[in-house]
Amino acid sequence: MNFKRRDPVKSIIFSLISCGIYQLYWTFFIVKESLTFTNKHGNIAFEIIISMLLPFIGLYLVERKFSEDCAMQGIEHTDKSVVYLILSIFPLGVLLALGFMQAELNKINEILEI
User: Fold this and answer.
1) Please, are residues 66 and 105 in contact by the beta-carbon 8 Å criterion?
2) What confidence score (pLDDT) does residue 114 get?
3) Residues 36, 64, 46, 25: is their CA dihedral positive or negative?
4) Four-residue CA torsion sign, 3, 6, 93, 28
5) Inter-residue contact 62 to 34 (CB < 8 Å)
6) Cα–Cα distance, 32 to 109 (Å, whole number)
7) What DSSP designation does 88 have?
8) What is the pTM for the complete model shown?
9) Cα(58)–Cα(3) distance, rounded to whole angstroms?
10) Residues 6 or more apart from 104 whose CB is under 8 A from it?
11) CA separation (Å) from 44 to 37, 50, 53?
12) Which of 32, 24, 85, 27 is nearest to 56 (CA)?
């Protein structure tokens, strides 16, 4: 599975300019791509909704599952779920957490393309 490469800085700027509308779009695709990495999670609607409504819980859960999937695939990935949990408590921290998560997806995508 290849992830769509997005620039985290541009995505943060677009989210701020659009007053959070782009953030919802971005969150949807980050969660969807993270959880469909191994296609073992089935219905991901719950995680998507939680990530949009309660990002501190949603991003924590998504990162935990993504880290487990990376371990199953043999891809080196550091679990940053606690960092995302702490960042997501603050409004602008959610954007930073999404930016870090996007950077990780971009890094994993580069590994998978090799």
Assistant:
1) no
2) 66
3) negative
4) negative
5) yes
6) 15
7) T
8) 0.82
9) 19
10) 77, 80
11) 12, 10, 15
12) 85
